[in-house]
Specification:
mainly alpha, about 65% helix
Length: about 160
């Protein structure tokens, strides 16, 4: 799964750049009509999701997730959001380096939505989930700031070249 690991790192780096691209902390927490989440809440959710599913479940890090607070907390400092995203990156790295092909073929160790899902399929799902929320975060920043500037969310130059 080296390709999936590389894409997870790429997308998470883009989430970090997105959070850094907000002009101030207030704009991270703005909630315009029609958008279900703030940029800050999306960052908390991404970090919590990855720390739980990669860190706690696959890596046994002991991380305890509070999913409700990912959407209800407000005003978390940008530095703390970035710290949580970095922790998510560390959790991904540790889990992806340690996981074996045999583990990938087995069911994910935790039922998800009441379902038993093959680990490899769920890891790919987590990549898609991350990319989905990255897009939401980019749109939130653009709506809140009025900037049309790209943060280079999905740079092709970071893909492998053979």
């Amino acid at each position: 799964m080296p390709t999936v690991h590389a894409l997870l790192r790429r997308e998470l780096a883009a989430v970090r750049r997105s959070v850094e691209a907000y002009p101030d902390e207030k704009s991270l927490w703005a909630k315009p009509p029609g958008l279900p989440n703030t940029g800050g809440n999306l960052a908390l959710h991404i970090a919590g999701n990855l720390q739980h599913f990669f860190g706690a479940v696959l890596g046994n890090t002991g991380y305890v997730r509070d999913r409700d607070s990912e959407f209800s907390r407000r005003g978390v400092a940008r530095a703390e959001l970035l710290k949580q995203l970095d922790a998510a990156g560390a959790a991904i790295g540790a889990a992806m380096r340690a996981i074996t092909d045999e583990q990938l073929a087995r069911p994910y160790p935790e039922a998800v939505g009441g379902r038993t899902i093959p680990t490899q399929e769920f890891v790919v799902h987590l990549l898609s989930h991350l990319a989905y929320h990255l897009g939401q975060l980019d749109y939130h920043r653009r709506v809140v700031t009025g900037e049309n500037r790209s943060i280079g969310a999905l740079p092709v130059k970071e893909l492998g070249d053979r």
